[in-house]
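Training component of the fellowship. As part of building independent skills, the fellow (R.M.) carried out the full modelling exercise for a liganded target. The chosen ligand was magnesium ion. The inputs are recorded below so that the supervisory panel can assess the work.
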Amino acid sequence: MTTRAPAVEARHLIKTYPGDVTALNGMDVTVEPGTVFGLLGPNGAGKSTTVKILTTLARPDSGTATVAGHDVLRHPDRVRRAIGVVAQNSGADPVATGRENLRLQGRLYGLKGGALDRRVDELLERFTLADAARRPVKGYSGGMRRRLDVALGLVHRPEVLFLDEPTTGLDPEARTAMWDEIGRLAGDEGLTILLTTHYLEEADRLAERIAIVDRGRVVVTGTPDSLKGELRGDAVHLELRAPLGEAGRSLLSGALTALPGVHEVLMDGRRISARADDGAAAMPALLAALERAGVGVAAATVARPSLDDVYLRYAGRRYAEAEAEAAALAADTLTLAGGAR
Ligand SMILES: Nc1ncnc2c1ncn2[C@@H]1O[C@H](COP(=O)(O)OP(=O)(O)OP(=O)(O)O)[C@@H](O)[C@H]1O
Ligand SMILES: [Mg+2]
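Fellow's submitted model of the complex:
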């Protein structure tokens, strides 16, 4: 059996930004050739920083990385020739037309003459932009712009394609179309794709393997099914009428964990999450225990494990909370910056 070298291999990347911001705190990523790999994490987790280092746009403070077999620090030029990059924010020139953008990109990579014409036509067709090819990009819809971004990343037929949040800001219809397109790229063309996303559903749907990233490092990696499969039984979520105090929490934690078939009880404000061998069977006992403790329940649900539950298990907080935390932090930073002016 021959084993092929990984298409992307990053080891223990550390990156800090001025102001004591640790963007990466020991980031490890391995992507097998010809596969789609998803870096999944909330805002500020370090996804774009990882992509910037792997695409030679930023240097790590320490750690090593190779892409398509080339060291990103020693041979950045070789890495650049082997990769396509679709950044989180569009790189297309809004004043130029779709065709002009593609032609310019092609020329940057040394394409010319008939080969350039053919490649541009092929990409316009493939990304259903042929009709809009003569219009300036500033008049494109969000979905059209994002399709052009991906086409731009593919002009020189890269081995590895980096997609940083390919569908953020797209409406559901455009998002589904983009998912189909990414699926086709990986399937037909054997491209290696590393994508970042903060949509659990996107990672679940597109990536063969995912790494869940939290605060600058990978907390767990595996196939979406293996990660969900590792969680025993059902996810039980209870929403309380009032937040629990410290005393109530410690009292209840013991009482609930003692119930047969109930594990991993986590409490947070008004919410209790637990795993149960059989969620429906455990629910009456859970509700009775809460009633005995005088805790009012507003809502109760039982569900098969989702990636959200995987995140909760490994990062210790719910995905939506991590997103809200990052948003609050960003707002704070803005206020501080505004106040200092
Ligand atoms: N140029 C920079 N200067 C200072 N801090 C930065 C810079 N770029 C990123 N950071 C910080 O590093 C951390 C990681 O940012 P990064 O952009 O990698 O996260 P992300 O996972 O891509 O988030 P998002 O989902 O919002 O795109 C954040 O705390 C961010 O504020
Ligand atoms: Mg980002």
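The panel noted the following from the submitted structure. Residues 17, 21, 23, 41, 43-49, 88, 198 surround adenosine-5'-triphosphate (ligand 1) (CB under 6 Å). The two ends are 62 Å apart (CA to CA).
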